[in-house]
Amino acid sequence: MTATELSAREIQHRLQQIDPYDFEKLVADVWEAEGYDTTVRQKSGDRGIDVEAIKEQPFQQKVLIQVKRYADSNTIGSEEVRKYATLYQQVSDVDTVVIVTTGDFSTQAKRLARDLDVKTVDGQSLAQMIVQNDNEDILSNYNLLSDAPSVPSNHLNSQSDREVTDTGEEIESLENVSDIQNTNIIKLFVVLVLPSILLLGIILLFSHAIINIYPQDASPEFVQFFFFWTVGGGIILFVSYQYIGR
User: Given pLDDT bands bounded at 50, 70 and 90, which one contains residue 141?
Assistant: First the structure.
């Protein structure tokens, strides 16, 4: 079987079955076919960089690539795009930040990626890159042209380097989804609950300011309590907005 006999969808499906670390190496091979010198980074301490690609001709280019071997049902959201866009500030002389996935990107993620100058390559696009550039040898090196794709023998031990669920989705991806859900809960609390508490304190203080016209009804403890309530609520609200805005 040759690469031209496979559809882009079939290639994408086969890419989703290989070991995550082998997929990083495959992506590096794809960029090498484009004339780049590539380095596959170790997972620890890579600041989100899986592959570094450098080209000297016709002009120097430095590309940082984050690789996500995801299933179709697992899309990359705007939180991840925003996270990897910070590589422009973290690493010097970066020309392009790229996120490559065998899955897809959400509509919001694609829009944000355009705004932050992050290039996105989904599973279909990656498969088309391989086919259009006639990179059949890359598919062959990772046994993706056989009827039952398997991990190359020289990479069998790499399976233990990354935990993978039975559905082929990385545990790392599930943790990202959990983090995003927790962030959304925090945002809901900050946007709805805290302003309500702060508004209640302001209303009560204002009401007491009117009542305090009559000295016999004055209550210093009441004023102090809701003064600190309002000020403290305002400080918490400000800090919370700073947190979710990062």
Answer: confident
CB neighbour list of residue 21: distance below 8 Å, 6 or more residues apart: 155, 158, 161, 162
Q: Are 109 and 82 in contact (CB under 8 A)?
A: no
pLDDT at 205: 62
Q: Are the CB atoms for 114 and 107 separated by under 8 Å?
A: no
Q: Which of 19-28, 133-142, 144-153 has the lowest mean pLDDT?
A: 144-153
Residue 219 clears pLDDT 90, i.e. is over it: no
Q: Phi, psi at residue 20, to the nearest 5°?
A: -55, -40
Q: Please, which residues have CB within 8 angstroms of residue 49's CB and are 6 or more apart in sequence?
A: 41, 64, 65, 66, 87, 91
What pLDDT score was predicted for residue 99?
96
Integer Cα distance of 126 and 8 in angstroms: 8
Residue 3 confidence (pLDDT) above 50 = yes
The one-letter amino acid code at 84 reads Y
Q: What is the largest CA-CA distance in the chain?
A: 94
Are 52 and 36 in contact by the 8 Å Cβ rule? The answer is no
Q: Alpha carbon 212 to chain centroid distance? A: 54
Q: What is the mean pLDDT of the chain?
A: 75
Residues β-bridged to residue 76: 105
Residues 6+ apart with CB under 8 A from 55: 34, 35, 36, 37, 61, 63
Q: What is the DSSP letter of 143?
A: T
